């Protein structure tokens, strides 16, 4: 059974059709990225999966159960980190466990993750004392610590500099291989999507529908050595042309 199944999903805002007949699925433990132009409906898709909004038609299944408009079946890191300003970093990180786990929290694990994300010493600070990138990391750890088995991450690394970003990507891969959750990941970086994913879904825009799927064959565990290989560059080119061709066919070589 698929962990997540999106069946013929359609969503409009007024007469603006944003998502049209979108279908795809994610297997248990799979890492899938979504690439699509800005405004193509990626965050809207996450809101639908998270039950924050309701589809006009089509269905969403988590573990075979229909979850249209139902909250709490996935853990979701929104595009802008939503930390509670009156809670310390540690207590922000523990929030997902508190809500879903009925008060059961694993403080030791949280502290270990905070340390692995390079935030040791910030456990008892408050969100306003952190940089944007640090806040994003906190929001992301909260997602990883939540008990749901599907994690939806909306551009979690977009505010980080290139080196911190690579460190966080490697950290995410190591945590993922340890905890084996299914991940749906939104990014604008082709390189990041290839480095992390088992599969990449390229969305078309206005309205969003699946344009193409790529299965990424690099073995695991992965490290940054693959970023400079010829094979990696070939994948980058194919996906770049797929995205660029949506804007301007002349960008794609004949
Ligand atoms: N609540 C809303 N009401 C009306 N229109 C909305 C609403 N939410 C999103 N939209 C519209 O839906 C479209 C898709 O927005 P969405 O935020 O899903 O795009 P995105 O793919 O996440 O973009 P980005 O890559 O820039 O984050 C946009 O045109 C946006 O204006
Ligand atoms: Mg978005």
Provide tags for this entry.
alpha/beta; 254 residues; binds magnesium ion; Rossmann fold; binds adenosine-5'-triphosphate; 10 strands
Describe this structure in words.
This protein is an alpha/beta fold. The protein has a single domain (4-223), classed as P-loop containing nucleotide triphosphate hydrolases (Rossmann fold). Helix content is 34%, strand content 23%. α4 (107-116) packs antiparallel against α5. The longest helix is centred in the last third of the chain and has 18 residues, at 162-179. The mean pLDDT is 90. Bound molecules: adenosine-5'-triphosphate and magnesium ion (MG). Adenosine-5'-triphosphate binds at residues 13, 18, 36, 38-44, 79.
Q: Beta-sheet strand percentage?
A: 15-25%
Please report the total strand number as a whole number.
10
Question: Mean pLDDT across all residues, rounded?
Answer: 90
From the spread of the alpha carbons, the general shape counts as globular
Biggest sheet record: 6 strands, mixed
Name of the CATH superfamily:
P-loop containing nucleotide triphosphate hydrolases
The distinct bound ligands, ions and cofactors come out as:
adenosine-5'-triphosphate, magnesium ion
Side-by-side strand order of the widest sheet: 6-7-8-3-9-10
How do the strands and helices of this protein lay out in sequence?
Blueprint: E1 4-13, E2 16-26, E3 31-35, H1 42-49, E4 57-62, E5 65-66, E6 75-77, H2 89-93, H3 95-100, H4 107-116, H5 132-145, E7 150-154, H6 162-179, E8 182-186, H7 190-196, E9 199-203, E10 210-215, H8 230-247
Bound molecules: adenosine-5'-triphosphate and magnesium ion.
